[in-house]
Specification:
The structure is a homodimer of 163-residue chains. By secondary structure, chain A is mainly α. Helices cover 62% and strands 8% of the residues of chain A. Chain A has six helices and three strands. The first copy, chain A, has a three-stranded antiparallel beta sheet. In chain A, β2 and β3 form a beta hairpin. Chain A is globular and about 55 Å long. The two termini of chain A are 25 Å apart. Chains A and B meet through α1, α5 and α6 of A and α1, α5 and α6 of B. Chain A binds a DNA duplex (30 and 30 nucleotides) through α4.
Chain lengths: 163, 163
DNA sequence: AACCTTTCCTTGAATCTTCAAGCAAGTCCG
DNA sequence: CGGACTTGCTTGAAGATTCAAGGAAAGGTT
């Protein structure tokens, strides 16, 4: 059975269009900025940031993939590249012989130190310097709602019979 | 001269993190949905949508690239692929011999007709069904502000001496 | 007309992402 | 213990994107 689709209202359409354009432009902007100043795409930079904030500057591959919201496969390739750059190193996990730890090297940390100020400035210029504090709050709340609904282990709202 | 970087406040950090996670998860989600149901990634689907809404279902390559916020190069490759699928056709532009029109074929239109309902449902489920009408308004306004600031032909805020 | 610059679009190579397949170590269970 | 299943991660090929380079037509200048 097919129900008549509930199309988007005029306001929803405008919001959706603006969302697509803003997110596309921003991701593109950040990719270029980081490619130019740090020699890597935005996602890779985000991986280094995660590692830098983790205890011992290391994280299991799966954990890193989960916090960065990317697949394990993609992470494997990414870490291979970052390893060639000397910014990350793999270490065997002592407690689980299948496991790998991705470890941020000193060189990797140095790259972050050098490029973080420029990156924050770019993010500010694109987002926070243009929004009121109230809008920053609103955006945070909205994005948290969306992210929660999209987690691989969803709330179950899409599979209510499994709750 | 280097000024001390203005790091993000706690609230800004949380908002930024939520933004990155939500946008990453959503783009991923839409890519999978459309790859599964329409056999193409989200960006390609967006190109067909733009064409379907254009007069005569056709658009100059450069115009299409601009409304979709992607580079001409990327569009060239994308249209080549969509052409192989039979969903888009290229036509010479009568008024400018350099120009090319991308034209949505009947097959391309049919694909949209078949897959649009499922796609709207996915977008609704991920975004609009989770937000209040007030939040939809807020998000629209926020995204318009960001998009405006990121247009290639910016407001000039980054080049104030050129205004 | 000759020349220079810009606009429109494409191309190929390098890089990045996805997808399906697979290996090896851990866990469960009789 | 032995077998089946799960978890953690990697691999290679196919597809997508970026980047730098370039060709061809249009526009501007002298």
């Amino acid at each position: 059975m097919t129900t008549a689709p509930r199309w988007l209202s005029g306001e929803e359409q405008r919001t959706w269009r603006a969302y697509l354009q803003a997110t596309t432009l921003l991701e593109d902007h950040l990719d270029r900025q980081l490619q130019r100043d740090a020699g890597m795409p935005h996602v890779y930079y985000g991986l280094l940031v995660q590692l830098s904030q983790a205890p011992e500057r290391r994280l299991r591959m799966t954990e890193l993939a989960e916090t960065a919201k990317i697949t394990r496969s993609r992470l494997s390739h990414a870490v291979a590249r970052l390893e060639r750059n000397g910014w990350v190193r793999r270490e065997e996990c002592p407690s689980d012989r299948r496991g790998q730890n991705a470890v941020l090297t000193d060189e990797g940390y140095a790259v972050l130190e050098q490029t973080a100020p420029g990156h924050v400035a770019t993010v500010r210029q694109a987002m926070f310097d243009r929004l009121t504090p109230e809008q920053v709050r609103q955006l945070g709340e909205i994005m948290r709602v969306m992210a929660e609904g999209l987690q691989p282990t969803g709330t179950g709202a899409d599979l209510p019979w499994l709750r």
